[in-house]
Amino acid sequence: MKILLVRLRQIGDVVFTTPAIRGLRHRFPEAHLSYVVEPAAAPVVETNTALDQVIVAPRGRGFRGLRRDIALGGRLRRERFDIAIDFHGGPRASLLTWLSRAPVRIGYDVAGRRWMYTNIVDRPRDLRARHSVENQWDLLGPLGIARPSPEAFPVEMAPRPDVTERLAARLAMAGVSADDRLVIIHVSAGNPFRRWPVDSFAAVAAGLVTRHRKIRVIVTSGPSEHEAAGQVIAHARQSLQADTRSRVLDCGDFSLTELRALVDRASLYIGGDSGPMHIAATSHVPMISLYGPTLPARSAPWRAAGWPSVAVEVRGLECRPCDQRVCAPGDFRCLLRIEPQAVLDAAERLAKGDNEHSGFGI
């Protein structure tokens, strides 16, 4: 049996499909599993041992992009897949699923595209307090696969040994010793609705360094937030005593594979609801996640309960959650009302917790 999986676009959304990948492998141990993904999120699945093939499909524009997709569709058709599952539901993903001509094509009930599938799965339009992993897993229902659990099917992204080795050398050059406790603060998010202020991140970085002498903070970001990361480092250092400023490190950019290796070395990860947060969730690092317009019920780290994570959010707002197109109150209160002290308090709770897996030793 040959099964095609299609999930385009966002990094976090691809992470959310990894439990389903493992579930398919468990249900069909002899099947050949192929996954179509765009370049930005390809590192998430390239090391997945449940997959036999990863097909990277660059996104094109206009007629040239359409012609490229039709050619890819022809390639998929020649591979003669028995089942195709569209985890995305967007125009491009549904087209590729349809072009595969797999006898069984499973997709969401999306207006204007439901005809492309042989098996249609309902997808309510409202923002339900239900985890995105479960929403993706709904597409396995027609194949008779039972409901998932974080313990049995956590999110996955295996670190690459060569990257881990290079990262260790890079940290050593930055002056990080084996006794240091690394805290990763990730300042990026996919849109302005999920960006916590630079000064708030800086206050957390400085607060951690001031409170705990073994902590060193590494600030990371996506390509579009490189300047913001530099500002966080600069502002944090300005508020510290001269002898502690070097403990807020400037290590440059990290690719997704490097970030995955870095979280294995870290004692704590702090960041907003973004793709890198879900990359961190594939490890056992303790996590503090900041939620603005989104809900932990939809996107909390999907992993065994033994690996600790804390959600920091502003509750009781009628406008939350939202579709992140327009801020109804106009002041982004769901995120901007999160105080740095709340994050520092969460870090203290993790540090003092009795969970044997916390790893946040100070």
Largest sheet: 6 strands, parallel
Beta-strand percentage range: 15-25%
| Terminal Cα span | 51 Å
Strand order of the biggest β-sheet: 3-2-1-4-5-6
The poorly predicted ranges are 354-362
**CATH architectural arrangement of the largest domain:** 3-Layer(aba) Sandwich
Assign a percent range to the helix content.
Answer: 25-40%
> SSE order, as H and E?
EHEHEHEHEEHHEHEHEHEHEHEHH
Residue-averaged pLDDT: 92
Radius of gyration: 21 Å
CATH fold-level assignment of the largest domain: Rossmann fold
In CATH terms, the superfamily of the largest domain is Glycogen Phosphorylase B
| Class per helix and strand makeup | alpha/beta
Q: How many domains is the backbone divided into?
A: 2
Shape: globular
Give the number of DSSP strands: 12
Task: Give a verbal description of the structure.
The structure is a single chain. With 362 residues, the protein is α/β, with parallel strands linked by helices. It folds into 2 domains: 2-143, Rossmann fold; 163-352, 3-Layer(aba) Sandwich (Rossmann fold), CATH 3.40.50.2000. Helix content is 36%, strand content 15%. It has 13 helices and 12 strands. It has a 6-stranded parallel beta sheet, with helices on both faces. It has a 6-stranded parallel beta sheet with strand order 9-8-7-10-11-12, with helices on both faces. Strand 2, helix 2 and strand 3 (53-56) form a beta-alpha-beta unit. The longest helix has 17 residues, at 11-27. The chain is globular.
